Amino acid sequence: MVTIGTIKRFLKTTTILGALQFPAVALASEVTLQSSDGTLKFVGELIEFKDGKYILSTNLGDIAIGAEGVVCEGEACPTIEAPAEEVAAAESTPADFKGGPVSLQSFDGALKFEGNLIAIENGNYIVRTQLGDLQIATDSVTCVGGGCPQVVVESLEPTETVPENIKIDADDPRVTLTSFDGNLKFVGDLIEVTNGKYVIKTNLGELRVSASTVKCEGPACPTIGSQIIEVDSADSTESNTRDDTPIEISFTISGPDLIGSKMMPLLISGYAASKGAVVEVTDSADQDGKVASLISDGGNGERMGSYLIAPASSQRAIQDLGNGQSQIAMSARHALPSEVASFSVAGAGDLVSADQEHLIALDNLVIVTHPDNPIGQISMDSLGAIYGGIITDWAQVGGQGGSIKVVSQGAGSDSRDFFEDHVFEGRGTASGSNQAVAESAADVVAMIKDDPSAIGYVSYASLDGLKPLSLVSECGITSSPDAFSAKTEEYSLGRRLYLYNRADNLNADAKQILDFATSEEADALIAQAGLVNLDVARRVQSSSDARVAALQNTKFPNTEAGVVNAMLDAIGKYDRLSTTFRFGTGSARLDEKARGELPRLVQYLKDLPTGSDVVLVGFADSVGAFGRNQSLSVTRANQARSEVEAAARNGELNDLNIKVMGFGEIAPSSCNDTDGGRALNRRVEIWVSK
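The line above is the sequence of Phosphate-binding protein PstS; the predicted structure tokens follow.
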């Protein structure tokens, strides 16, 4: 069945593809909508019944489902006459059922679901996906994959066959929306694009899908980035195919491949689209890197500019920028104080000012194992012991016996430096006799896929079928490496990705590329690159949450118990948005990530139903007295509220009930024994009514 934790939060401007939190009990507004033929079932919150349609709040947006042919079950269902045909039951799960990976697709190709088949009940496939468990009628879809059973049904053909290879006219509104991992597909007629969402008409009604979560295919699709043409390896000084002149580099963009390999060409394509150009990417033989050239007139014109994307560490990239060798530095970390000082001395501006530092994406450095490894989580202490050569057998961390093959990335790489800084905290580096060094993230993936005993670390964008592990901090806080935790920055190995520029020599084209990279239009391209964008995501809060369990299982002094109980009561009433504001020590000033997220948050809140509650919930670190910290958390929540209201224009949020709460130092998202941990705990979360 599509549970409230699946459809309800999959359909509303989110890129979450990891584990979701599920509520323990049904909400009063929860309803079940099932087609009278049993083909599809949705469970979610009923917002209203209007014009003969049920309006449900979901994570791809609000879904409108016509009442005709649909049965509504639940206390919130309106009193209307609706057909209630009996659905014929089919066989239960066969005795020889094994299950496994499957792909289920409707006969007209409009819907596609991929996951692990875990059961067959009452004529329905039960498929476990990253969204939760889906229930889909066996006679409404074709099943492809090794997990498909031999199910006997009357017919696997639709009542009306759909012609194949239909020629689509340029004015045909039909589009296909596919999630970037390929797991979900929706086909329908594009009605409009509004507030960053595609609105398509399907046989279920209208779907609103965030443009940052899917790829749109079809003549009616709007342009998000231009075409990228990959050219075989060639010397950038050789004659190009458009004229006999050498390719002239306009300027250089340098930094780690994490940003430069895939995301930067996509961002340049977004800039190119505004110029009516396409991007031609050529491997440069005489210069280490790729050359991205803009070709005018949709690829039929002249070369408008060529930009060298040069691989370099974050440190080297910032040095290149300081030396005038590049226009843009890509960095997988925040600029160091020494780097900021050197730019200031050189008259190159304030490197961390809003005009020179641009947060464009987020990433988790994910601990990964072979998919067959039974381990699901690992402590930071154990991780350090494994990479330090102290723990050498999986049995020592609760796994099946056998030596651990440790895979590291190359010395001097940003990922290895980040890993060792956070795991060893400056006290050492990875060592041990059974350790292999991979030259790239792709090599890490290949080595672990070939060895069930291996462990390694890769970017969120490079998981490629490996098993991600949750991390347990020194103080017992567990964090999962999903996109939501990257957005909230609550995964222990999360990081920010930046672009930097000088203040004194910024090229006009470079500025326009930076402007596009930091705009909401870039979100879809960032997600397409496999990284985590700054779009707003929404997650259910419930009594099953890990932090709820931690609060319930901890004995607090009487002075704190009242605050804890107030938070536990509030969690059941609100969902959490991924936008999380953070502050400096003892400060109520928003950091650069929070300032950059404000416009996206305001846009998201504008789309909420009239009268919705929006709560800015403040938290503090544990430095100082409990009462003082609670007061400080309320102060920060009020400051965040002022920032949100100031970012809204012309009373855009006047129809919402905006309020504040403060819970002090309870429910930390990180340990309070380090400066970094305390900084993560000084935050304001955004909660919205369910």
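Note on the example: The chain has five domains: 7-73, 174-217, 228-356+501-520, 363-494, 538-689. Residues 7-73 form a domain with the SH3 type barrels. fold (CATH 2.30.30.100).
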